Amino acid sequence: MTGQSKNVCPHLGLMQDEATHMNFPTLANHCLNCKRPASPNLEHQNEYCLTSRHEECVIYKAGHKISMPDEIG
Q1: pLDDT for residue 2 is more than 60
Q2: Which of 9, 28, 40, 45 is the most exposed, fewest CB within 10 Å of its CB?
Q3: pLDDT tens digits, 14-57
Q4: Nearest to 56 by CA among 42, 72, 70, 67
Q5: Is the full-model pTM beyond 0.70?
Q6: CA nearest 12: which of 64, 28, 43?
Q7: CB of 32 within 8 A of CB of 13?
Q8: For residue 68, what are the contacts with CB-CB under 8 A and spacing of at least 6?
Q9: In the chain, where does DSSP find H-type helix?
Q10: Whether the Cβ atoms of residue 49 and residue 70 lie closer than 8 Å to each other
Q11: Predicted local confidence at residue 5, as pLDDT
């Protein structure tokens, strides 16, 4: 299932369709708020990207595009 949810990070998307994401952790989901869009690890997606906790993510809180931290990538 694809789509956007208010509980999901607005920067999560697919490389071929940035307005869409998968509603489960997958390497297809990419953080588009990074200098180079990349897939957050599945644990990070499950705990942050796909939940209302996305606002706690260091990438989300940066306020501008940053490199994906090693512990997230």
Answers
A1: no
A2: 28
A3: 999 999 999 999 999 999 999 999 999 999 999 999 999 999 99
A4: 72
A5: yes
A6: 28
A7: yes
A8: 31, 34, 36, 38, 40, 59
A9: 42-44, 58-61
A10: no
A11: 61
What are the contacts of 30-33 at 24+ separation with CB within 8 A? 31/59, 31/68, 31/72, 33/59, 33/60, 33/62, 33/65, 33/66
Token representation of residue 54: 């996305």
Quick check: helix, strand or coil at residue 35?
Answer: coil
Q: Which residue has the tokens 């869409």?
A: 20
Tokens of 20: 């869409």
Question: Angle CA(60)–CA(17)–CA(55) in degrees, nearest 5?
Answer: 15
Q: Which amino acid is at 19?
A: A
Look up tokens 């906790």; give the residue.
53
55-71 pLDDT, tens digit per residue, is 999 999 998 999 999 99
